[in-house]
Specification:
globular; alpha/beta; two-stranded antiparallel ribbon; 10-stranded mixed sheet; 15 helices
Length: 405
Amino acid sequence: MYKSMNSRFDCNRRDFVKAGGIVTAGIVLGTPALWAQEKYESGQPERIKTNIDELMKVPRTKYSLPGLFPGRTVEVHDKKTMVEGVPQPEPIKKMFETGLQQLTGRNLQESFQLFFDQNDVVGIKVNPVGPGLISTRLELVDAIVAWLEANGIKRNNIVIWDRMDYMLTDAGFTSERYPGIDCVGLHTMDEKAMDPESTDDSRWLDADGNHVSAGNFDIDVYYWADVEAPQDKNYLNQHVFNNKYSYIGKLLTQRLTKIINVPVFKNTGNGISVATKNMGYAAICNTGRLHRPLFFDVCTEVLALPVIRDRLVLNIADGLRAQYEGGPMANAKFAYEDNTIFFATDPFAMDMVCQKKMVEKRKEMKIDVDEHPRWTEYLRYAERLGLGVVDPDKTEHIFTDITTG
C-alpha cells in the first residue's frame, strides 16, 4: 500500500537529520555532481593508488563479469505497469519474464540453469532509497523470487540485501513482507546519534569503541585506496571504519554464491546511479572517503573484487518509476513513470545504455546537460580491464514494447 506522493515525501525530522548529515559528514549518498566536477576541473587528475592490480591477478570463472552475454542490454517497456502510481504485479511479472528470455534466448527454466543451480544462495541487491517513490519495486522482486522458487531455490537460500538496515525496512523489504527470506542490511547506522545535540553513542559503539556492525565485514577481503577517512564520530557512525580499507560484507564473502543486482534508474549529477553504483557503493563500508578523489572509478574497481566479479550474474534495473534530476536522493519533483525494466549480465553495458537514455531525458526536460566524457570514463575503464563491453560497435541494445490493448 503506497501513501500519496505528498504525505510520503513531506520533510520530517528524520529527513532533516539525514539532510543535515549530508552537509556535515557526507552521509550515504553525497553530492556527486560537485565531486565529479572537482575531480576533473584541473585536467586529468593523477590516479589514486588502489589495490586494483592485485584484484585483476585473480583467475576468472565462466560467470565473471561481463558475464555470459557481454555488451548485451535488453529494455522492456509496458505502459500499463503503473496505474495511478501503483505498480501492477502481473504486467511486471510479464515484463520480467520477457526481458529475461530476450537476454538469454532461452525459456525461463533454461535461463535459470544458465546462472544457478538449486544449491545456490542467491542475494538480491535492491536499492531502497526513496521508499515508495524510486526504490526498487517490491513487485519486481516478487517476480524474481517466484522465478527462483519455481526452479528449486528454497526461500531460506534467498537473501534480499542492501548496505543500510533501516533503509530496507523503510522500503518494505522486511521478513513480514517476505516470510522465509532473510532481509539483511550490512550495517546499522544510528540516526539519532547524527543529531548534533545527541551525546548517546551506546547504540552504535561497543564498550571498546568499535562500531557494533564491524563484525559484519570481512577484514580479509577489501578494496584498498590510498585515501584517508575523516576521524569524526558521525563519519564512523555512517561508515563503520575510518581507515584506508573498505571491507566487503561477510554476507558476500561467506554466504552468497550468486548475486542478482536490482538497481533503479536515476541520475547522480550528469551521470547515473544504476547498475554499477548500486553494487560499488553498497557492498563495502568506509565509502565516504572515496567520493571526491575516486567517485565513479569506485563503481568499476569494487566490481573487480572476485567475490563480486564472479558472482554477479544478473542485473535487472527498475525503471518503472525513474528520476532524471536531484539524484541519487529521491526527489518527487523529478520522478516520472517510465514503465521500463532493463536486463543484462554486463552492468557496464547496462550503465552505458542508461546513461544515454538519461541524457536524452534530461534534455527533453530542459535540464542543463554536461556531456563531458568524464561521466562515462569509468565505463570505458571497465572495458580496458575486461569487466564490461561498452564500445558501441560491440554492444547490443534490444528494445521491446509489450504493451497490449
